[in-house]
Write a structure and sequence with these properties.
This protein is of the alpha/beta class. It has two domains: about 50 residues; about 190 residues, TIM Barrel (Alpha-Beta Barrel), CATH 3.20.20. Helices cover about 50% and strands about 10% of the residues. The protein is built from nine helices and seven strands, in the order H-H-E-H-E-H-H-E-H-E-H-E-E-H-E-H. It has a five-stranded parallel beta sheet with strand order 3-2-1-7-6. A two-stranded parallel sheet has the order 4-5. Helix 3 links the parallel strand 1 and strand 2. Helix 3 packs parallel to helix 9, helix 6 crosses helix 7 and helix 8 crosses helix 9. It is globular and about 45 Å long. The protein starts with a helix and ends with a helix. The relative contact order is 0.14. The N terminus is likely disordered.
């Protein structure tokens, strides 16, 4: 919490100091004003980066692939499910290869497809809270609304599996300082990813593979999607084909 306070206050205090100095050195007041504005602009740029870019842990530290080592050798992550067709296909593929994965599920879909959630849980995959309705304006939600999104999903998963999820994965990786406070109150940790396959945009398997394999390392957590949401491609068969090839690549590298 202190980190967030310093992040917001320090630039304003610095800008205030610069402007105050400008009054004492009137000849250069334009330069002092420009410097103060530059400080505030830089703060806003960092603020936006921390909110919308998954690689910037500005507000608080998030868990990634290497942090899951003690829980299992997880390197595949699937978001926005469960889906009655594609999640089943992915589970069949993982079972065939003996691979455990991370499933970041939406509460409303978990409520609709409890049998799929039970299968994910019974086959020892990691279930993660991904909000109830996958709000696209996550960063603009009030504290109460965000907490409600998380609590509703945890309640659904607890009812189906008997366990409360330990991790929260924010939709699209968007984060705000209040998220750390809320997840802390709920005893949860925020989980991100290391490499985005961009399978919601790419139309063929080769591009998905290229996005992943050029950066993949042994402990990388790779982001894919089994669910279908508005503004994304309504087909995950290319994702499934790519995932199988990635599993074989990891085996060749002796990473699994």
């Amino acid at each position: 919490m202190k980190k967030g306070i310093y992040f917001f206050l320090l630039p304003w205090l610095t800008a205030g100091f610069i402007l105050t100095a400008g009054f004492y050195f009137a000849t250069f007041k334009f330069y002092f004003l420009a410097a103060a504005l530059a400080v505030l602009f830089f703060q806003q740029a960092l603020l936006l980066a921390g909110m919308f870019f998954s690689g910037f842990d500005i507000f608080f530290s998030c868990l990634r692939g290497h942090d899951l080592a003690k829980d299992g050798n997880y390197f595949l992550r699937f978001d926005d499910g469960p889906h009655p067709v594609f999640t089943i296909k992915i589970l069949d593929l993982l079972k065939r290869y003996g691979i455990r994965a991370v499933f970041c599920v939406n509460g409303n879909l978990a409520d609709r497809y409890p049998d799929i959630i039970k299968r994910i849980f019974n086959e020892h995959h990691l279930l993660v809270n991904h909000t109830y309705s996958h709000p696209y304006r996550l960063v603009f939600l009030s504290r109460r609304a965000l907490k409600n999104e998380i609590e509703k999903t945890s309640a659904v998963l607890q009812r189906i599996t008997g366990k409360i999820p330990r991790f929260f994965a924010p939709p699209m990786g968007h984060r705000t300082p209040k998220m750390k406070e809320i997840t802390g109150q709920l005893g949860m940790q925020v989980l991100m990813w290391d490499i985005n396959s961009r399978d919601t945009r790419e139309k063929n398997t080769d591009k998905i593979l290229k996005n992943v394999l050029k950066k993949a390392r042994q402990r990388s957590l790779l982001l894919f999607h089994d669910g279908i949401l508005p503004f994304t491609r309504a087909d995950r068969n290319n994702t499934i084909t790519a995932v199988e090839k990635i599993i074989n690549h990891y085996r060749e590298q002796q990473w699994i």
